[in-house]
Amino acid sequence: MAAARSFGIAFQIVDKPPDYYDKLERASGEQHYQLPVPAVFIVGIDHTIKFEHIDPNFKIRLDPTVILAAAETMLR
Known about the structure:
The protein is of the alpha+beta class. The chain has helices at residues 2-7, 18-28, 64-75, and strands at 10-12, 34-36, 39-43, 49-54.
């Protein structure tokens, strides 16, 4: 979650039933009750973000061919 917070993609879980928080705590071992927004980052050798895709809808995933094309573009 430290990385998610530093990338600005962490969000606080609110208004869930108590058992949701219990499951989250057991899974993470933490009590921060945060989750990351699904995201893809490609970081260049100069340590800067060259490509990013962030979508709050966890059901929407970026097609792998798009990620590969973005990475290949960086190699040119």
